[in-house]
Amino acid sequence: MICNNVPVNDKTTLDVLCHDSNGQLVIIQLSVQEDDMMLLQGLQSLDYVDKFKSFLKATYNKHKIDDKEKPRLILIAPSFSDAVKRAVESMKGIRVDLYEWEYLKLGDHKGFHLQPIFTWKHAEKPREKEEKPPEKKHEPKTPKKKEELKEEKTLEPPSPPPESKETTKPETAPQPKQEPIKAEAPKEEKPAQPLAMHPKPPMEKPKEEPKRKLRLF
Fold first, then answer.
1. What phi and psi values does residue 48 have, to the nearest 5 degrees?
2. For 74-91, what is the mean pLDDT?
3. What is the CATH number of domain 3-118?
4. Across residues 146-172, what is the average pLDDT?
5. Contact criterion met (CB below 8 Å) for 46 and 29
6. What is the pLDDT of residue 177?
């Protein structure tokens, strides 16, 4: 234990301040009855200690305090309401443990029994099983018989004949000579003759019909 009954503000008092075997600071809030306010008081004490953990390490240098780890909170009471339990379970980034105490008396012996209600645990990743490759069975080699060795020698394909070093060049056919192409002179175009204008035929006068004489009766 480092200290106890430390006033945090006008309404909150830190009951017990200690540290675990790893040097992590632990705040313990105690209550003799079911009280939902102790969770709020515990969170206020947790925030207070977290701000001054470097100062606490320098002040209480006899204790092995780890100021890099965030403090954790433990609430101890005879019982907890469902609202407190749900609130603690839904918290993330803050470690809060709940313990219920019970007073026991057996003859002349008296004491308290603590029962964990909710404890925070790190989520451990399941270890993957390493699959070992199947071991190959070593079969003993049997010596080959002389007859099999003879058959292998006879079945060897004959070696191909060596290629001749002299290589014949392929004959190329003679290409015909190309005669120079003569450029033809451009043909002279004759100018187009103008079209002859034909005179219009004279207009014929319409023939006059002979006049008829009227006969009188």
1. -65, -45
2. 94
3. 3.40.1350
4. 55
5. no
6. 59
